[in-house]
Amino acid sequence: MTQISVLPYSTTKMKLDRSIQPQIHALHFPEHLDPEIRIIGENTPLILFDLEDKEMVFIKLVFDAGIQYFQDRKALVFSKSMILKGTKSYPYPAINDAIDNLGAHITFEIKQEKIVLSLSCLKRKLDPALEILKEVMFDFQYSQEEFDRSVEKFKQKFKIQEQKPDYISKKAFNKVLYGEKHPLGFQFSESFYDQCTLEEVERFHKELFENCPFSLHLAGTFSQENFQKIEETLKLNENRNPIFEKQDFKIQSGVKQWTRKMDSAIQTSINAGFVFPSRNHENFSEWNFVSLVLGGFFGSRLMANIREDKGYTYGIYSMILSFSDHSQFVIRTEVGNEYVADTLNQIQLEINRLKEELISQEELDLVKNYALGSYLGVVNGWRKQVSYFEALYSNGYDWERKKRYFEMVENMTAEKLRTRAQELFANELTIVTAGG
């Protein structure tokens, strides 16, 4: 059983008593807030966290759209930068002042498989904040001047990024791994930013906010009047039909190694990885644990070898990026130019050790403690739980999936870890480097 220490405090002065050994308690799967899930309005899924006595309220609209729904990405690129650039009642920058004066916060995120529009504010400011949100969604009015300024900012940022080995390496890695026709392999160019028009952004926002289905996530205390106002603001009684269809992009790549020399660079950025089955695979969580052992935290094997022992880098990490139709395993680091060859050799050495040797119980317990402790940190507090459940629900899961993950970590053995490592690393690494 994984355990955690609880520091002793004096009951009279509430000071840490260092003369008493901390108590050791077993880690258990934490209690979670359970949302109410129902349909609101015409046909909108509502995920409601009814939290009594909270002064803040949170509203999230999670749209059935994202980068992988579009072949043409021009409108998507500028959508986020233009979302708060003016409405009929609040020209830019007056709209930002209006939001700030309410103590509210509006954000807009475009992810691979979802688009999220969020509002947070004090409960007593909910009605005026909803009025602004309504204008952002349905009465936006952008100026050509602000759009042109946004284009120039993107171009300037692109020019700067193109000089950085880590940007070049990451971009090339996705291109090599997926092919340029896949959304993850798409390659930006300076001319790309000149091809988009303000009309395309406005058309995209109109289609998204007026027609695209979404799930509604609410957290806080809401009265019946609040629900009525939300329904009216978001036009929940109007029928919405799917207008964006997720594209069936094929992964098209046969290249296993790619290098770009940059004469001015004193370091080389390395990306190495592969594509493997999606998060829906029964062994996905265990493969994630393998990645954690290899390079998922500061005490991992890659960090111990390449940072602590060799001193080649400040940091090296492995991670798994998961999508509905596939997952990506990747190792990332930056090392001195003279250390590239040996770094790649050491990466393969550590992978082979996981495939061939049994992990010690001491190291296994360390990784278990880190994995379970990290999860407790992720769900520590109602705000984090609400945010985390939104991600779970958007991917078709609930708390039961995390309970199974918790149990998987507790029950992981050295033998099973080696078996899963052999499965995961049966895939050949695609290696991309950029630097001096």
Task: Give short descriptive properties of this protein.
436 residues, alpha+beta, six-stranded mixed sheet, five-stranded mixed sheet, 15 helices, 13 strands, 20% strand
Task: Explain this structure.
The model has no long low-confidence stretch (mean pLDDT 91). The strands form 3 sheets. The chain has a 6-stranded mixed β-sheet with strand order 3-4-8-5-7-6, with helices on both faces. A 5-stranded mixed β-sheet has the order 9-13-10-12-11. It has a two-stranded antiparallel sheet with strand order 1-2. With 436 residues, the chain is α+β, with helices and mostly antiparallel strands. Helix 1 packs across helix 7 (198-211) and helix 9 crosses helix 15. Helix content is 43%, strand content 20%.
Helix tally? 15
Low-confidence stretches: none
Strand content: 15-25%
* Head-to-tail CA distance between termini: 48 Å
Oligomer description: single chain
Structural class: alpha+beta
* Alpha-carbon Rg, integer: 25 Å
Query: What is the mean predicted local confidence, pLDDT?
Result: 91
Major beta sheet, strand line-up: 3-4-8-5-7-6
Order of helices and strands: EEEEEHHEEHHHHHEHEEHHEEHHHHHE
Number of strands: 13
- Largest beta-sheet characterization: 6 strands, mixed
Globular, elongated, flat, extended or rod-shaped: what is the shape?
Answer: globular
